[in-house]
Amino acid sequence: MRLHSFLKLAFSLLFVIAFGVSCASCNGDEPAPAPAPAPTDNRGFGQSDIEAGEDTSEPTAELATVYFDYDRASIRDDQKAALRDNAAAIRAGSWSTVVIEGHCDERGSEEYNLALGERRANAIKQYLVDSGVASSRLDTVSFGEASPAVRGHTESAWSQNRRSEFRVVR
């Protein structure tokens, strides 16, 4: 009977300590951000043509970031000029591959945002192919909500996180 009481007390203390530790990081104003999923390799969701473990890509200022409306993967009219310029730069560039990254804001589930980011990256890829860029030079990857450009919980922050960025592989 004493052993049962001791075990009951020990488990209760462990629960209280675990709860206290998990609450210690909360400041009461906003929930703690979820940790980014641990990568199993160096590829994001949907990336298929670049070998795992070989990250020779780098962001480039030569290619403009493209922004999207909330919960949409269609290319906005005000973003088409930037995409036309990106298509011309890619056609003229000596890069072996351009990786199109799809990103989302924090709203929505992780799974939904990974799929939305993939649709965004694929929409950009299709636009570039239609603009004369060889499909074999383009690859896509979705980061969902895992890599925000701007931290925050406002429309201003969210609008900058709904985007596609470009990385070149030399």
Task: Outline the structure in words.
- With 170 residues, this protein is an alpha+beta fold.
- The protein has a domain of 113 residues: 60s Ribosomal Protein L30, Chain: A (2-Layer Sandwich), CATH 3.30.1330.60.
- Helix content is 38%, strand content 15%.
- The protein has 4 helices and 5 strands, in the order H-E-E-H-E-H-E-H-E.
- Strands 1, 2, 3, 4 and 5 form a 5-stranded mixed beta sheet that branches.
- Strand 3, helix 3 and strand 4 form a beta-alpha-beta unit.
- Helix 2 packs across helix 3.
- The longest helix is centred in the first third of the chain and has 23 residues.
- The radius of gyration is 22 Å and the shape is globular.
Walk me through the topology.
Elements: H1 2-24, E1 57-59, E2 66-67, H2 80-92, E3 97-103, H3 110-130, E4 138-144, H4 155-161, E5 163-169
Parallel strand pairs: 3-4
Antiparallel strand pairs: 1-5, 2-5, 3-5
Helix pairs in contact: 2-3
Which structural traits does this protein have?
170 residues; alpha+beta; 60s Ribosomal Protein L30, Chain: A; 5-stranded mixed sheet; globular
What overall geometry do the principal axes of the alpha carbons give? globular
Task: Please describe the biggest sheet, giving its number of strands, its sense, and whether it closes into a barrel.
Answer: 5 strands, mixed
Assign the CATH superfamily of the domain at 57-169.
OmpA-like domain
What structural category do the secondary elements indicate?
Answer: alpha+beta
Mean pLDDT: 78
Low-confidence stretches: 18-54
Query: H/E element string?
Result: HEEHEHEHE
Number of strands: 5
What is the CATH third-level topology name of the domain at 57-169? 60s Ribosomal Protein L30, Chain: A
Number of helices: 4
Roughly what fraction of the amino acids lie in strands? 15-25%
Going by CATH, the architecture of the domain at 57-169 would be 2-Layer Sandwich
Helical proportion, percent range: 25-40%
Radius of gyration, whole Å: 22 Å
* The CATH class of the domain at 57-169: Alpha Beta
Q: How far apart lie the N and C ends?
A: 70 Å
